[in-house]
């Protein structure tokens, strides 16, 4: 049994609220995955259920209609299967070229869901399920948001390929370079987009690209990814060791900080908590600043969804997901996570982090 204490993290955001139809969303999602022939192998249904993806998505939009929330819930369950079956296990998990070919077909299927899939993709039930989901998302939202949904998956591909290439080439990357890829590797933009679709928001394009809005949203995405790096640390370490990789050479936040600072794991975890706490403080300040920028109601609602994604996906949902105590390939739960309470006491240092990939965010709090 590996025991790991998740340190106290700064989060002044209020606890999230369950969606009133949460159990229905879960039941319908697992039923849909079964109908896509994704549960034919032993244990796959149980692993999918252990993600508790209905909480991950629906609790971001507890007052959204169930019919507009369901596609996002189904997407989250499907993406975790993709993560387990394509990036953690199988030939695409160890060969960047194979992963690139699979991701190319994947994006083609998402962007042209009515067309016959590529020859190899047509035999993959996971690929066919993504095509079916893309059609459903297209039917329930605007053409612009559906296209954004497809394009956001392209950005996820960039993150997944970066991670795979780091492992394949055994490159010792910098923490700044890691931050450039982290939000997309975590898939953080997609739950926010699911919330946008569920609430039928119409964010003006000029406001979506407003520097302050971009900084706040990217900070929220990064928060989700960095918190994942904390509570996933024991799981990812065991999976790396089982795959024959050195856990300290993984392209993840804590191993990279250990290498850069030449410190032990506990020191690196505490340093990462300091980084994420300062980003959280920045996010709160950016949201307050947004009220002074004459943004539309939908844009402000979009920013509120980003904050809610942080609360749900980084704080409220992970302790409920057995996924993080059961590494892929392990039949038993070898990890015991001890979750420290969050704190509403802000960090004493509110200055910009010294990483060019994200330091520009702090330019927009005044």
What is shown here, in short?
The protein is 61% helix and 3% strand.
* Helical content (DSSP H or I, runs of 4+): 55-70%
Strand tally: 2
* Beta-strand residue percentage: under 5%
Quick one: CATH class? Answer: Mainly Alpha
Strand order of the largest sheet: 1-2
| SS-derived structural category | mainly alpha
C-alpha geometry:
globular
CATH architecture annotation name: Orthogonal Bundle
Q: What kind of sheet is the major sheet? A: 2 strands, parallel
Average pLDDT score = 93
Tell me the number of helical segments per DSSP (H or I, 4 or more residues long): 16
Q: By CATH's scheme, which homologous superfamily applies? A: Farnesyl Diphosphate Synthase
Q: What is the C-alpha radius of gyration, as a whole number of Å?
A: 20 Å
Number of domains: 1
What is the CATH third-level topology name? Farnesyl Diphosphate Synthase
Order of helices and strands: EHHHHHHHHHHHHHHHEH
The low-confidence parts are none
Distance, first to last CA: 48 Å
Organism: Streptomyces sp. NBC_00049
Pfam family, one: Terpene_syn_C_2
Protein name: Terpene synthase family protein
InterPro entries: Isoprenoid_synthase_dom_sf
